[in-house]
């Protein structure tokens, strides 16, 4: 399906963009982090009625049980030159809010119907090598996981998107520790010292080239799930890439310098694994892989 077709079927009016802007703000602030979210088994369900269903995230992905499928190519158009990126300390993780036109933050193809827009990306990480990511592969966690949160262009308000099973799409990218600093993550680290306290924010001086962080050339798993922070709405198509990226110990140390609202270091900010509940996890192998 051509990009021009997608644009012609999704004409966005000015007032709708305004609503999305408000949605963006709400998504940024929707997860008033509560430590209990990370302390299983599922305290989120008690706090969020919307989390009581059967398509929760994150999950333990079993490659042997994933159903291998062919899907249209997953495509993006993140126009680094034309968007704004702002780092925020939201008290439970770092988050980069992305602002720009639909055409400059676009995701489509793969398991998705229609086009999505990138709203923000944020990170989950741990204090040691055995944990940090939200998803696991065969029970194994990675050091951390970056989530790229997109809204379906069909829905122009927060309420609508969160109420629909296809409201959001999140790309999950694992990371491990390696010898070299990741050059794109370095652009976030550049201003991280301005964001040590909860509520602080700083414009990125060098925009992250988002396409360089996401391992699009590799395989990915996809399934229907939920947000992993309150309100934990079951509105998310997950796309979790198989190949991890690498960041350096110094970069992880910078993440672990951020503080929450009580002055405590932010770390181990992941939700416990949730039951699969019979859902199908599909594996899309990239032919170049
Ligand atoms: Zn997340």
From TrEMBL:
Pfam families: Carb_anhydrase. Residues 31-285 form the Alpha-carbonic anhydrase domain. Its EC number is 4.2.1.1. The keyword Cell cycle does not apply. It is an enzyme of class 4 (lyase). Keywords: Lyase, Metal-binding, Zinc. One of its GO terms (molecular function) is carbonate dehydratase activity. PROSITE patterns: ALPHA_CA_1, ALPHA_CA_2. It catalyses: hydrogencarbonate + H(+) = CO2 + H2O. Gene3D superfamilies: Alpha carbonic anhydrase (3.10.200.10). GO terms for cellular component: cytoplasm. Reversible hydration of carbon dioxide. This is Carbonic anhydrase.
């Amino acid at each position: 399906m051509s990009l021009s077709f997608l644009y012609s079927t999704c004409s966005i009016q000015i007032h709708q963009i305004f609503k999305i802007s408000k949605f963006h703000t709400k998504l940024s602030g929707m997860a008033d982090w509560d430590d209990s979210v990370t302390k299983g088994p599922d305290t989120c369900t008690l706090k969020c009625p919307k989390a009581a269903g059967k398509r929760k995230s994150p999950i333990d992905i079993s490659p042997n049980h994933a159903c291998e499928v062919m899907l249209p190519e997953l495509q993006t158009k993140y126009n680094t030159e034309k968007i704004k990126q702002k780092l925020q300390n939201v008290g439970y993780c770092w988050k980069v809010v992305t602002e720009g036109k639909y055409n400059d933050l676009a995701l489509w193809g793969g398991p998705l119907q229609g086009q999505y827009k990138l709203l923000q990306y944020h990170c989950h990480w741990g204090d040691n090598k055995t944990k940090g990511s939200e998803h696991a592969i065969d029970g194994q966690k990675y050091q951390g996981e970056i989530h790229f949160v997109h809204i379906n262009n069909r829905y122009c308000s927060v309420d609508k998107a969160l109420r629909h099973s296809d409201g959001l799409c999140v790309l999950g990218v694992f990371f491990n520790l390696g010898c070299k600093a990741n050059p794109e993550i370095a652009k976030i680290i550049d201003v991280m010292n301005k964001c040590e306290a909860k509520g602080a924010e700083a414009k990125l001086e060098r925009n992250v080239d988002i396409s360089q962080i996401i391992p699009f050339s590799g395989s990915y798993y996809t399934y229907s799930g939920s947000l992993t922070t309150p309100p934990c709405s079951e509105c998310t198509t997950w796309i979790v890439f198989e190949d991890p990226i690498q960041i350096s110990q110094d970069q992880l140390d910078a993440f672990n310098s951020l503080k929450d609202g009580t002055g405590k270091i932010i770390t181990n900010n992941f939700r416990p694994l949730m039951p699969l509940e019979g859902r199908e996890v599909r594996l899309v192998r990239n032919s170049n892989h």
